[in-house]
Specification:
The protein is an alpha/beta fold. The chain is about 35% helix and about 15% strand. The longest helix is centred in the first third of the chain and has 23 residues.
Length: about 325
């Protein structure tokens, strides 16, 4: 069959009819390719701009670490600020370290004398309980408050756990409990997704807590590893998490927990920027959220600048890591659901 040299021929044969010849010129090919490319770019833009459909399954979040002082409550306060002040997400806050926890101090309601008012709904303030206390006693909530928090209808239920208290959860529903099965089953029966935020520092113990959490919850949870950058933000500042080369040479030490958490459990890493401890303490004392730092009457200009830089870095980390759409941003009007 003779055709022009600059044409491709497509032949369609219908029953008992003459062949129908459709010609497509090279220019037509180019137009089609360009259209496909535009379509592909649009899809990519939709993804980058978070216009895609995101799961809005309600969250049961646990902030965990095997050791005290790793920065759990600092992270809880920073995340609480994002949820309630910036994202305006319905959220219920719980502090498992009693009324002495800094998370409870930051979000509690106070009377005119500055004393914490007990019994305020967790959706409005923070409910504190003692995870190490078996039962409710003398008006103080025990560990049962952990599972009873499922009564909240908030989009995010957030627990700031006491250091090294994860094992206490096993006996909440089963006196002889040796695993988390009963806890997991109950949380999932309420339709909530479990999210475990493991806050780590340079030490070995905090890295070990990630492994403990994975053993406890397995594939029933999503994991966010929060790197507390108060002592540095480079990989070398977290030797047991990223691994390190011994001075004597030989095999790399550490790094295995990180590798497994990412490859087997799709964990994401989130950097928690440093913020001057004195500046943090002043904000907590005034009960002013990080985002409203300009309202502080006691922060210096320098300290306000420190908070501003912290917020910028934290926002960037939440977005670039993808952690924001695991931790509650998906419930804002910015995301199409």
């Amino acid at each position: 069959m003779n055709t022009k040299s600059n044409q491709k021929t497509v032949v369609q044969i219908e029953k008992k009819e003459q062949p129908i010849i459709n010609t497509i010129t090279p220019n037509d090919d180019v137009d089609a390719i360009e259209e496909n490319q535009k379509s592909g770019v649009k899809k990519l833009d939709d993804i980058l701009n978070k216009k895609i459909k995101v799961s809005k399954q309600k969250i049961f979040a646990i902030i965990n670490s095997n050791k005290g002082g790793s920065g759990k409550s600092f992270f809880a306060t920073a995340l609480g600020n994002k949820l309630r002040v910036d994202w305006k997400v319905s959220s219920a806050f719980f502090d498992a370290d009693g009324s002495v926890g800094s998370f409870a101090i930051a979000f509690s309601k106070r009377d005119k004398d500055g004393k914490i008012i007990a019994g305020v709904a967790p959706e409005e303030a923070v409910t504190f309980y003692d995870i190490r206390q078996k039962n409710d006693e003398d008006g103080k909530l025990g560990r049962g408050a952990f599972i009873n928090s499922l009564a909240s209808d908030a989009d995010v239920v957030l627990h700031d756990m006491a250091g090294g208290s994860l094992h206490e959860l096993k006996s909440i529903l089963d006196e002889d409990g040796t695993d988390m099965d009963a806890i997991i089953d109950t949380i999932e029966s309420y339709g909530r997704k479990i999210v475990v935020c493991n806050v780590i520092d340079a030490g070995m113990a905090s890295t070990a807590s990630v492994a403990d959490a994975i053993r406890a919850f397995g594939h029933h949870a999503e994991y966010v590893t929060v790197l507390n950058c108060r002592e540095g933000s480079k990989e070398s500042d977290f030797p047991y998490w990223f691994g390190y080369q011994p001075s004597s040479g030989g095999e790399i030490k550490g790094g295995k927990v990180r590798k497994r958490s990412i490859e087997e459990f799709n964990a994401v890493e989130l950097k928690l920027p440093a913020l001057n401890a004195s500046t943090r303490a002043k904000l907590e004392a005034e009960q002013i959220s990080y985002s409203n730092y300009q309202e502080s009457s006691i922060l210096t200009i320098q300290e306000k600048g420190q908070v501003n830089q912290f917020l910028k870095k934290f926002n960037e980390s939440l977005e670039s890591s993808g952690a924001e759409d695991i931790l509650g941003h998906q419930f804002t009007d910015e995301v199409v659901g």
